[in-house]
Amino acid sequence: MSVHLRLTEAAAEDIRDLDPQHSKAYIDFDHKIRQNKNHGSLRFKALSGHKNLYSARVGGDYRALMVHAGNDTYVVVAVQPRSTVYERLERGLRFEVNHVTGQFETIEPEVARRLAEQAAPARPERDPQPKQETVPGVLDGFTDDELSKLGVSRALLPAIRDVKDDSGLVTLADALPPHTADVLMNLATGMSIDEVMENITDPARPDDPVDPADMAAAVERTTSITTSDLALQAIHRQDFAKWRMFLHPSQNKLVTKNYRGPARVSGGPGTGKTVVALHRTARLAREHASGTPILLTSFNVGLAKHLKRQLGELLTTEEMKRVEVVNIDSLAMRIAKERGIIDTSARPLDDTEAKRWWQTAMDEAGDREFGPDFCHEEWTEVVCGNIIDSRDGYLRVRRAGRSHRLSRPQRVRFWKVCERFTARLEEEKRFTYPWLSARTAVSLNGDSTASRPRYRHVLVDEAQDMSAAQWRLLRALVPERENDMFIAGDSHQRIYGAPLALGPLGINIVGRSTRLTLSYRTTQEILQAAIAMVSGESFDDLDNGVDHLTGYRSVRYGPAPNLIGAATRKDELAAVVEEIRAWTNEGVDPSAIAICTPTKTPLEEIRDHLTGVGIATVPVQDGTKGDGVRLSTMHGLKGLEFERIVIAGVGAAEFPRPFVRQRRTDPAEHRRLMRKERSLLFVAASRARDALSVTWTGKPCEFLEPLL
Ligand SMILES: Nc1ncnc2c1ncn2[C@@H]1O[C@H](COP(=O)(O)OP(=O)(O)OP(=O)(O)O)[C@@H](O)[C@H]1O
User: pTM of whole model > 0.90?
Assistant: First the structure.
């Protein structure tokens, strides 16, 4: 008579909203019903006239409404006052297996219809009774059969037909099953039936055939249903981070699917790529209790720390031991030291220092043709990326992706400069990270006896910024096999690396790429502004194709970004202060606000000014420590998110940054750098959850033009 209890997302929300007394009562209820559903105080009973539906007393007049999902499994679908539960049932509340996705769905046709009616555009006053047919429905272009084939329940069609505009659809979406909302939103934003079928419906189909009468199978498939254990833990900790309990079906598929080789997930900012990578890592860690560890890696130390913290919320301490979470450069350095590739005292050479060294190498070689920026990029992308260690190798290599052609004599000259640079690295026991990754990959690949394979699975976040040499290292760390690599990234957010194709690096993702389109982070207004900032540019898909943001959207709405042009720097600083004060007066926690600028100097100016007017600030890299508004360069916001963001200092004189403007004489290189600058602004803007303000002095930067 013991019961296995599950919980829908809606029921979890009901529980979260309970007052402390009923919350405690729910924990008692959960405990009792699991042991014996017929315990007298529970008044457990089947509801007549409703197939598979049961009710039980939680405490006071609160009832748990449950769906029987075979054997001893019950799914709690609502925890509400008795009168509310019965009223909803009378109005047609029911639970179905979706005929296409096979997922468990809550259908409330009357609620949907009411919402659709409420959201209908107001009638003009002088025309109180216009003819009905004068306002077309937003989905009139699609037949009932077409919508049904895409996975929309026929019970919801009358409500859907009542929707007259996009904002009505957004209102209605709250009352729709997630798949239905997804299909309709995509159709409304201009996707064709075929595109929705390919991008939304087909990926949501289960591998096994759908039986609309098989509730047990549906519950197993449904990601918006969790085990009540996890929910109870969350209740105890008052912690309802939804991403840990409920994934969107499109996200869950990426977590559970087994791939025959490397797979990639792309998608705009905030679509849950990191969440998917985390859940997939957790799933793999749970499946493999012992043996070779799993690697979860990202671009920099801060991001890796963030991943580790979040993974710790999904796994037990024991399970965490099966996963190594480390940024790619630290990993390369550790393995390189272990294998004696570099001395334990060797130190990295950062980009600025490296460029000075290139200048010296050119001076010594008497060659002024190339310039330190060119040399450093050529070295990173071509020499390290292709693991070249000889003049002949360099003379032969295909310099894919580089904007300049080099003649043979030019290559010979560059190699001379390069030899001086590498000799100095050796002499002074220094290294650049791409060089280190390349050398480590060579060492691992050439060693058949060493402790290979190092990892069972490798998962990579922020993949767009990894360099070719880093991919070679990652490839060397995991043998080619099922589920070997999982790659999450968005080329629109590339602010460090260069475009590349993974195939030639031994990572074949063809046919194993998926795109997420629903943003959980930003509002539709911020998202559209961010998209406008990168409009007109083309982005690669790591596979010799083009990436795009078609169908990328949010279901949240909010204020339009606040665009503030100031005549003087003093006025701009005053505008920043005004924004921060307005937000904190609304009750926003200062630590949920970030201010970013293109470079460090204006940030320091803002910091000093805010301190002067009594607003505390904290550098973003200090993580969760301290009260105060977070300050960062745009680069420092990579991978993070804040409730509200001010992007300051984006006047035409400051952004794109001056060094990019100086490269105008070299059109190909200039284009490449401009794309990165656009991406930088895109990254900064898309970190904001609820509100975004952009400030500048004088003329605004050209990337803001589509917004003005
Ligand atoms: N299924 C979900 N339910 C609720 N929240 C979610 C879900 N998936 C993602 N989120 C939330 O959306 C936000 C963005 O998620 P995440 O960081 O994984 O996106 P991303 O695609 O990696 O973003 P970016 O590319 O901008 O770094 C986070 O706050 C995350 O908790």
Answer: no
